[in-house]
Every structure is written in C-alpha cells, then in structure tokens.
Amino acid sequence: MNNVEIGAEGVESPPWRNRAVSFINRVLVFLGLDNWELSVLFCGNSYIQELNNRYRGRDEPTDVLSFPLGENAGKRYLPGDIVISLQALEENASCFKVSPDEELRRLLIHGILHLDGMDHASNVPEEPMLKKQEEILRELGPYHIISEV
User: Fold this and answer.
1) Is 147 among the domain residues?
2) Is position 119 within any domain?
3) Does residue 93 form part of some domain?
4) Where are the alpha helices (DSSP H) in the chain?
C-alpha cells in the first residue's frame, strides 16, 4: 500500500487534494509501484522559480520539479518529492488547449516517472519518457481531480 501526502506552499491547500491522492494511487498501481511514501507540494510560480534556480540553475518558473531521494525505510520506499506550480499548470492548460484536470494528471504522471528513474533530454513527444507519460494518461482514461463532474 502506498502513502501520498499533499502540501501547499504560498497557495491555499487545494480542496481537491483527496482526488489528487486517489489519482496518484491509481498511477502507482498501474506502474506496479508499492510501499511508496510520496510527497507532493503545490505552489505558485515564484516558489517553484526559486527551487528551479537553486537546484537546476534556471532562474525561471517551471511546471513540475521532482526531487529524487530513492531510499528504503524498512518496508517503505521514499522515492522523493514532486513540486507542481498551480500557476504554470493553468498557463500550460491554456497554451496546450487542454483542461486543467488533464494537465494536472499529466504533471503528476511526469513527476512520478522521474522519481521512478526515467528522464528526458528534451520535450519532444518522441522522448521515451514522454511517450510513456501520454500512454499512462490514455490508459487511465478521464479522471476529474480539480472539477467534480
């Protein structure tokens, strides 16, 4: 069984956090990942820009950052942390003409894949990690996190 913790920094804690936890658990089960202790932090552009500058040397906001830890704690696995800018999520959704729900699912999957050891050299759709991300998004089908239907 996995454990997912959701936090917020500089933004209100999302009212849909429980649905995000449910979706994350679906992704982890789909990938066959068990006993993960995963932390997800939602923030705004200024906070993620600070992290991006400090840890990647890029003084600009980004949509998602993953901080791998990769440690075992008894029977539990501590993969690391995922940080997502809710502002960048909204900007991406508008730019790519997708719903905020779809973009949030994409960013969560992206962060999980990074913590599971995958990486990409560019953002071209042919990158194996990005192809896997889109495959998971399709396989898990529509799911509403931000807006209840």
Assistant:
1) no
2) yes
3) yes
4) 17-30, 45-56, 86-96, 100-115, 128-140
Question: What digits encode the pLDDT tens for the residues 19-38?
Answer: 999 999 999 999 999 999 99
Let me know: does 13 contact 44? Beta carbons within 8 Å. no
Establish if 48 belongs to a structural domain.
yes
Secondary structure class of 86 (helix, strand, coil): helix
Supply 101's token pair.
């729900």
**Domain count within the chain:** 1
Q: pLDDT tens digit string along 107-123? A: 999 999 999 999 998 88
- State which residues form the domain around 87: 3-140
Is the pTM higher than 0.85? Answer: yes
The tokens for 125 are 């759709």
Give me the amino acid identity at 99.
S
